[in-house]
Each structure stands twice: as structure tokens, then as C-alpha cells.
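Key result, reporting period 2: structure in, sequence out.
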């Protein structure tokens, strides 16, 4: 217990130092606006990848609708901050809640589906959201919603990224998180042991959608402008590529995948026509030589030590 407390304190101090260094570099101009833009994108991708990994990697539900949840969050925050003049924190929370409600809405009727059928159903949900956006004049229709105030900053990105990782990590260590992992391992066996599989699958969907909605709010309030085509099928593929690249069932893998592919994307901006080709080649190489992704289902040694200490304490 003493070592666990020490580990938590060290982690907290490292986070504070990281935030302070980032803010110092921004204030002194070492991190310019272009570099900050890419840091924001990396943070948003980490939130999206970790939240999708909860649904797909840890609960075993193959979803292609994550961009739709991001879209709902982006438009909700855009409406609250640009049209209704509400503070960003209100728009951020409303974005997460709206996306979580959408996750429950799509989760209840579709989660009896499995594998490819669930992927097709969530893909259809994403297209429905996109078409609604295209035909709704209040949010700009095909032209998009603009003049969104820029509230997203280094502070918001840092807080939301850390909060997403910490909250989902702790959820997975809880009884509810273990139930989700049990569903992934063997749904029939989990149900036979008394796990309410539908309840936990909907819960995972709602939590993942909540954080995807907050990522959408961060995106909308950084880039001023959003349109339905920004959250199409290919955006869901982008997020899935990050999760598969990093490792299904690994939070660290999602972080590593988001950082690595965001940097690769940064270097490929001058040749956008080859970007998806290279993505495909990366996926192909990973599937052949590392089918479980870069990290597999491994976590940091620090996390494993915590898990061992926790298990040891429980056994006593």
C-alpha cells in the first residue's frame, strides 16, 4: 500500500511537470502554432483511440461508428458555444452526454449483433448521422458550421487526454471493467457466470461514445469550422487503424499508436494521395509480423506493478 501510494505520487508529479513544461515551451515560443496544432491532433487521437479500444479491444465489440459519436460531440459543442453562447465547459459536457445518449440509442438495438454484422450496423449509424448533418440547415448543412469560438488550448487538451486515460484505465480495473473483458474472452461463459452481457456492452458503448464526443468538442473548438464530411467513414477507419496498430486491448498501445501515426501523417501531408496507401501497408505489415499490434495487450511496467500489488493486497 505504501509503494502504491508512492507510485501514485510520482505519477502525479510527472504529470504536473509535463504540463508545466508544455505551457513554458508555448509561452516562450519553442512550441509554435504549427507544432501546437499537431499536439492537439495527437491528444484528440489518443482520446478517440483509447475510447474505441474500450469498445473494440476490451469488450470485443467491432464498431465502425466512432466518427459518428465524435461528430455528435463536435456539433453539440459548436451549437452550445457558437449559437447559444455558453461556456466551453458546458459545451464539452453536453457534447459528451449527447454522444453517450447516442451510444445507448445505437447500442441497445444492435448489440445482439456480433462481428461483421455489428460493424455494418454501426457503419450505417455513422452514415445516418452524416446525412442528417448534410440536410440540417440549422447546423449549416453541407456547408458546415463555422465561427465556432476557439476555446481548445494546451490546458484543455492535456486535462482531457489524461482524464480519458486515467478514467478508462480505472474503469477496466473495476468489477465492471472485468465484466467487459470477460465478455470479450467468452460471452457465453460470462453470461453463464451471471454477467449481464447486454448491460455491460451498452455501458462500454456509452462510455466510449462519451469520450469520443468530448474529442469532437475539442476538435470543433480548435478548428473554428466543422462539416459533416469531416466525420465520415474514413475517420472511423483512421481511429480503428490507430487501435489495431497500437494493440487491441492495450491503453498504452492506443497512446503509442496515436502518437506514431499522427507523426507519420504529419510527414505525409505533402503527399496526401499516398497517405491511405501507406496506412494500408502499415496495417498489412502489422497483421503479418505482429498480429496483436505493437504493444499487444501489454501495459507499462508501472501499471503491471500496480496490478501485482493490488492483487497481493486482495489475497491478504
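The corresponding designed sequence is given below.
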Amino acid at each position: 500500500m505504501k509503494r502504491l501510494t508512492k507510485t501514485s505520487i510520482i505519477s502525479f508529479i510527472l504529470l504536473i511537470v509535463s504540463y508545466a513544461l508544455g505551457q513554458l515551451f508555448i509561452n516562450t515560443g519553442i512550441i509554435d502554432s504549427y507544432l501546437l496544432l499537431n499536439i492537439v491532433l495527437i491528444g484528440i487521437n489518443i482520446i478517440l483511440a483509447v475510447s474505441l479500444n474500450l469498445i473494440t479491444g476490451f469488450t470485443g465489440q467491432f464498431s465502425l461508428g466512432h466518427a459518428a459519436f465524435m461528430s455528435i460531440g463536435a456539433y453539440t459543442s459548436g451549437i452550445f458555444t457558437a449559437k447559444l453562447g455558453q461556456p466551453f465547459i458546458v459545451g464539452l459536457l453536453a457534447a459528451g452526454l449527447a454522444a453517450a445518449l447516442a451510444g445507448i440509442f445505437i447500442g441497445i438495438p444492435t448489440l445482439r449483433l456480433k462481428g461483421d454484422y455489428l460493424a455494418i450496423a454501426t457503419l450505417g449509424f455513422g452514415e445516418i448521422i452524416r446525412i442528417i448533418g448534410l440536410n440540417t440547415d440549422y447546423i449549416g448543412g453541407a456547408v458546415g458550421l463555422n465561427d465556432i469560438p476557439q476555446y481548445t488550448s494546451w490546458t484543455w487538451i492535456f486535462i482531457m487526454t489524461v482524464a480519458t486515460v486515467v478514467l478508462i484505465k480505472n474503469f477496466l480495473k473495476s468489477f465492471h471493467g472485468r465484466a467487459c473483458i470477460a465478455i470479450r474472452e467468452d460471452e457465453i461463459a460470462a453470461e453463464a457466470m451471471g454477467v449481464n452481457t447486454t448491460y455491460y456492452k451498452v455501458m462500454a458503448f456509452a462510455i466510449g461514445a462519451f469520450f469520443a464526443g468530448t474529442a469532437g468538442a475539442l476538435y470543433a473548438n480548435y478548428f473554428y469550422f466543422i462539416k459533416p464530411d469531416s466525420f465520415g467513414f474514413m475517420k472511423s477507419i483512421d481511429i480503428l487503424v490507430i487501435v489495431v496498430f497500437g494493440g487491441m486491448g492495450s491503453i498504452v498501445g492506443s497512446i503509442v499508436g496515436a502518437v506514431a501515426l499522427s507523426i507519420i501523417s504529419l510527414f505525409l501531408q505533402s503527399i496526401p494521395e499516398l497517405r491511405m496507401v501507406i496506412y494500408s501497408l502499415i496495417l498489412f505489415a502489422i497483421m503479418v509480423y505482429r498480429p496483436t499490434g505493437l504493444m499487444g495487450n501489454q501495459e507499462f511496467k508501472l501499471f503491471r506493478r500496480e496490478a501485482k500489488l493490488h492483487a497481493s493486497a486482495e489475497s491478504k
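Residues 309-316 have pLDDT under 50 and may be disordered. Residues 246 and 256 are 6 Å apart (CA to CA). This case is discussed further under Risks and Mitigation.
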